[in-house]
């Protein structure tokens, strides 16, 4: 164990300040929550600190805990320290990459398809960096990236971290067949036989959403189950 901790310290010495603070907090208290990262260390986007640690090769496990108000929030703990990897450091993506992706795919999240101002979208590796590493010459391999909203990016990170392929095999070809890498055509979601449809209602469409909510309540169904039943009837006609 002491050897693993020493290895962890050597990796931390080359990591970002955000990653160091996150890991040092975990070592002292056992875990760190997104609230603590924000309130104690001033991180406006706490998951970024966790990503920094993961990109440095430090295994983290994401969990959910309740805060003082009873609301569920994310928390991070150290994973299997024997899986610490020595990474050379993640390359900085060209600033124009986001603009070019926007021109090609539009200012929308590639997963939920909701429109967002470009500043709120994040460039994401289709196959997680922790699995495939850096992409040589990103501007010549646009298909290796996509734009995601913050919510979908966090959902993808959560799912990927709990996927057996992430935890054990780390095979990029398995990731490429997953919804989180290729929502247009996929075979699994985190190695589970699932299919997913993300729907977002905006502006005038919200009235339709509210009618669906009322209809679902009248039929004593949860909204997703009600929408499925409506789609099932349509496809059976």
Name some characteristics of this structure:
Arc Repressor Mutant, subunit A, mainly alpha, three-stranded antiparallel beta sheet, 237 residues, two-stranded antiparallel sheet, 3 domains
Oligomeric state of the chains in view: single chain
How would you classify the helix and strand content by structural class? mainly alpha
Name the shape in a single word: globular
User: Can you tell me the CATH topology of the largest domain?
Assistant: Arc Repressor Mutant, subunit A
Work out the helicity level. 40-55%
CATH architecture of the largest domain, by name, is Orthogonal Bundle
Number of helices: 11
Low-pLDDT stretches are: none
The rounded distance between the terminal residues' Cα atoms is: 62 Å
Give the radius of gyration. Answer: 20 Å
For the sheet with most strands, the description reads: 3 strands, antiparallel
User: How many extended strands?
Assistant: 5
Enumerate the strands of the largest sheet in spatial order, edge to edge or round the barrel: 1-3-2
Q: How many separate structural domains?
A: 3
Order of helices and strands: HHEHHEEHEHEHHHHH
What integer is the average pLDDT? 89
Describe the model.
The structure is a single chain. By secondary structure, the chain is mostly helical. It folds into three domains: 2-83, Orthogonal Bundle (Arc Repressor Mutant, subunit A); 96-176, His-Me finger endonuclease fold, CATH 3.40.1800; 203-236. The chain is 45% helix and 10% strand. The strands form two sheets. It has a three-stranded antiparallel beta sheet. Strands 4-5 form a two-stranded antiparallel ribbon. Strand 2 and strand 3 (72-78) form a beta hairpin. Helix 2 crosses helix 4 (46-55).
